[in-house]
Amino acid sequence: MRRGDCLVLNDTRVIAARLAGRRQPSGGAVEAFLLEKQAGAQCWQALLRPGRRLPVGASVRIENSEEGFVVEEKLPDGSFLIRFSTAQVYELLQEHGHTPLPPYIKRADELADKERYQTVFAKVPGAVAAPTAGLHFTEEILSALEQRGVRLLRLTLHVGAGTFKPVECENIEEHRMHEESFVLSAETAASINACRQKGGKVFCVGTTTVRTLEACWNPENGLVQPQSGRSDIFLYPPYQPRIVDGLLTNFHLPKSTLLMLVCCFAARDRVLAAYQKAIAAKMRFFSYGDCMLLLPEGREEKTNN
To answer: Structure pTM?
Structure first.
């Protein structure tokens, strides 16, 4: 990366989204996995286990706490709307919640995961999974890039649990993407547009930043527009990135939408050949795994290192 380039980071912060509780008054064990805050500080969408035994009106107390929640509604997708007894839900999670490690990590979360499963630039709470490519960065690396003249830019996309959902339909156009909330500020959008107009390159850390920028691309003027809202953008070949010149990303799981997004940056056979080399070298995949730099087809000549 050179002076005049920019590096785009996702500053979302992972919440300790798993809560253990007991149903009142029976005492049966309940696990809640919070997905997203709804209107009002006390209402959240959540997955509940065992969901079939928790009717509307069921009351749950969080273990080792005086606080709890009530089941307000069962939603069509199988999740629930719950209402906490306190508005200080983030504080409750910080004290009693567990880090929502992905299901393919076959161990319980540890105390160290509360910080280890965060990027050093995490700021805005709301994600239930880490933007994993960002986990590779240290303050020293970011400082060195800035000293080189690379502009560090931030956006927010709260990674949802749907990021782990595999593509199960034969025709990928039938796959329904999950929605995630995002914010692209006017300052970040202006800096990206200025970088590109001056001949600089836009590098993204993670697929979440790619999805946000491509969702905010305006085909009428070729610029990214500041926006906030929800996105369900699904990127797969033959789509060509409009804004992004390089992607730093982890190795993704088979049948995932993220692996398909990666193939927008290089031909599928080249990507799969790289994956075979990663497997042969015993590299680690996805969260807490290794990473790679991808450049879109035909753009390799733009970057010398």
So the answer is: 0.89
